[in-house]
Amino acid sequence: MLINEFDLTVEPGERVALEAPSGAGKTTLCRLLAGYLSPQAGVVEVDGAPVSCGRRRRGARRVQLIWQHPEEACDPLLRLDATLSEGLPRGECLHDARPSDLMERFGIAGEWLSRFPHELSGGELMRLCVVRALLARPRYLICDEMTAMLDAITQARVWTQLIEVAEREQLGLVVVSHSPELLDRVATRRVSLAR
Ligand SMILES: Nc1ncnc2c1ncn2[C@@H]1O[C@H](COP(=O)(O)OP(=O)(O)OP(=O)(O)O)[C@@H](O)[C@H]1O
């Protein structure tokens, strides 16, 4: 069994670094936490309610996963305004105050929205995926090597903005990174997955 007898509670506003050697199961745990995989035993809960998996996953907005390959997280046939709108709660639109603020924070240019995913750079598309995740008003964000593909300056900007939003909205973050410097900067607590 890859992950056994593991227990983790993430408080609102906490940023927990998940540490383990390569292949130990960090990405697998991230996918479990976000409801993309179903545990063979045990449960993932938000406020006492289980995070749903499978076809109903789409409705599980409270835990959002952002990982390092944004091109795999976007429908290549959808223009980016439709991709971004996937994150919006019913009744909200991209021109509302909160989406506009988030787009500005993360440097999403209006002209990108009529393009397709392959017409943005990897870093631009990743930032768009961060905004899409935040639009869903999650309680928790799971960041799996989220900024690994970015240059150091863009990485620092993204994290500065994300930490500001997370503190303001009291989001709980789980952060996976192979960069100890990044974890030193962003994490408020470290948890080891090592067996
Ligand atoms: N779909 C799958 N089917 C079978 N084995 C898998 C699958 N996905 C991952 N694994 C295996 O599960 C183990 C854990 O993989 P995982 O990607 O969770 O590790 P990780 O800690 O995130 O590694 P890294 O730091 O290298 O990204 C690995 O041995 C991997 O080969």
What name goes with the CATH superfamily?
A: P-loop containing nucleotide triphosphate hydrolases
Query: What would the average pLDDT be, to the nearest integer?
Result: 90
Please provide the ordered H/E string of secondary-structure elements: EHEEEHHHEHEHE
**How many H/I helical runs?**
6
Architecture in CATH? 3-Layer(aba) Sandwich
- Bound molecule types: adenosine-5'-triphosphate
Low-pLDDT residue intervals, each spanning 5 or more residues? none
Q: Which class best fits the helix and strand makeup? A: alpha/beta
Approximate helicity band: 25-40%
Radius of gyration, rounded?
A: 16 Å
What is the CATH class designation?
Alpha Beta
InterPro entries: AAA+_ATPase, ABC_transp_ATP-bind, ABC_transporter-like_ATP-bd, ABC_transporter-like_CS, P-loop_NTPase
GO molecular function: ATP binding
Domain ABC transporter: 1-195
Keywords: ATP-binding, Nucleotide-binding, Transport
Q: Nutshell version of this structure?
A:
This protein has 195 residues and is of the alpha/beta class. Helix content is 32%, strand content 14%. The chain has one domain (15-192): 3-Layer(aba) Sandwich (Rossmann fold), CATH 3.40.50.
Structure, explained:
- With 195 residues, the protein is an alpha/beta fold.
- It has a single domain (15-192), classed as Rossmann fold, CATH 3.40.50.300.
- The protein contains six helices and seven strands.
- It has helices at 26-33, 80-85, 97-105, 122-135, 152-169, 180-186; strands at 15-19, 45-46, 49-50, 63-67, 140-144, 172-176, 189-192.
- The relative contact order is 0.22.
- The mean pLDDT is 90.
- The protein binds adenosine-5'-triphosphate.
